[in-house]
Design brief:
This protein is 61% helix and 10% strand. The protein is built from 14 helices and five strands. It has a five-stranded antiparallel β-sheet with strand order 2-1-5-4-3, with helices on both faces. A hairpin with a 5-residue loop joins β1 and β2. The structure holds fe (ii) ion (2 copies).
Length: 419
């Protein structure tokens, strides 16, 4: 089972990658938009200043050809690729191009034919061969503020300015990603600490449930015998048999709980029948059989014991269908109940009861053998017979304290190890 450290680490790593991607894409997109806006604003302001300064050219467009040499602004002299004065109806009055950028001017002219600017779209950005430029349409006003015409120009973006803006964006991006990484790192110990609390509470809750299970099991045992040894032994036998036939950890947990509570319904059986020091007559037997339904009813409200209930409900079923409870047969009887039936009968046979003496180990094994296929699932009966001798030896002639210690070890192994 992967450790909680690894699980938290992997999930945080996945969250960090996803959040970094989202933030990276968003910051880059917003940053590039901002850069474009800054460049458009710069281009618009420079071209507007140029056009406004030379407004008179609207009246004498022929003079435009010499204007670039006379411009007062160094920026516009270096960056204006081409420009065109237009009248109020967007008809060309005069055009010029910058001799510094004559090759680009041809490209701008080609683009202008394909994607004209209008009142809606007053600027467009273009890039080619590592250079970027912006075409801008500026409306011009006459002396009284009346519309006088337009100037459409192409402004070459300074590569150094572009690189500086992109460097700023990279720094912003890095800061955002570092912030995400630091936040993720801070979350790691916080999540682990919260998880430790949750695990502690879960273990306390589980320990409480197990204690209660043992207390109830012990209360039932006290009614018909002096100790809880039967419960301890059948739980131990059942786990060993379940391990032997390859049951998983969760199923074995349910089996332990079921073993403790298998006869919980005997609480509802009167003493004259439960403690009768002789064989029960048929009428008394019928009353005794009701302990199965009583047990199911008692556990009905417990979700924690939902699967363990199979042991309570079906532990008196027989493989050939002649048992009681629901009268199930074969593999219709839940596996936990089939396992439990073998060990419960074996322990009953080898124990003293008010109405009988204990059978020897050999006699009990012979009876289990005879019951394989009729009383018991034959596969499980034979699996138990194969492991029964050392189990029987270990559980006899030992103190209750010793049996309880072994059971606690088993409970630790199946309920708490790795939790
Ligand atoms: Fe029973
Ligand atoms: Fe029993």
């Amino acid at each position: 089972m992967p450790s909680i450290h690894r699980i938290v680490l992997y999930r945080l790593l996945a969250a960090w990658v996803v959040i970094s991607l989202l933030i990276g894409v968003t910051v880059s997109w917003l940053g590039m938009r901002k850069i474009d806006q800054q460049l458009v604003t710069l281009a618009t302001e420079e071209i507007k200043r140029f056009a406004t300064t030379n407004l008179a050219l609207l009246e004498q467009p022929a003079a435009l050809h010499n204007t670039l040499d006379l411009l007062p602004s160094q920026t516009i002299r270096e960056h204006l690729i081409a420009g065109e004065f237009q009248d109020r109806n967007r008809r060309k009055l005069a055009a010029t191009s910058n001799p510094l950028h004559s090759a680009l001017a041809l490209e701008v002219e080609r683009q202008a034919a394909g994607a004209a600017l209008d009142q809606e779209t007053r600027s467009r950005k273009f890039s080619a061969d590592g250079r970027s430029w912006i075409r801008v349409l500026v409306p011009l006003s006459g002396a009284e503020g009346a519309a006088a015409g337009y100037f459409e120009g192409a402004f070459l973006v300074d590569p150094e300015l572009m690189a500086r803006l992109r460097d700023d964006l990279t720094v912003t991006l890095l800061v955002a990603l570092i912030a995400v990484a630091l936040t993720t790192l801070c979350l790691y110990p916080i999540i682990l600490s919260l998880n430790r609390n949750v695990v502690r509470h879960s273990r306390d809750l589980l320990a409480g449930n197990i204690e209660l299970m043992e207390v109830v099991g012990s209360a039932i045992a006290k009614r018909d015998s002096a100790t809880s040894m039967h419960n301890y032994r059948v739980a131990t036998y059942a786990v060993k048999l379940a391990e032997n036939v390859g049951l998983g950890r969760d199923e074995i947990r349910d089996l332990i709980a079921g073993a403790f509570l298998h006869d919980v319904g005997k609480i509802g059986i009167c003493d004259s029948i439960l403690l009768k020091p002789a064989e029960l007559d048929p009428q008394e037997s019928e009353v005794m059989k009701t302990h199965v339904a009583l047990g199911v009813d008692i556990l009905r409200k417990s979700n924690w014991l939902l699967k363990a209930r199979a042991v309570v409900e079906y532990h008196h079923e027989k493989f050939d269908g002649s048992g009681y409870g629901k009268g199930l047969a074969g593999e219709d009887i839940p596996l936990l109940a089939r396992i439990f039936a073998v060990v419960d009968v074996f322990d009953a046979l080898t124990s003293v009861r008010p109405y009988k003496q204990a059978h020897s180990f050999a006699e009990a094994i012979a009876m289990i053998e005879r019951g394989a296929g009729t009383y018991f699932d034959p596969r499980l009966a034979h699996a138990f017979i194969a492991i029964a001798e050392p189990l029987y030896r270990e559980s006899r002639d030992v103190s209750q304290a010793e049996v309880e210690t072994r059971l606690q070890d088993m409970i630790r192994k199946y309920f708490f190890a790795g939790a």
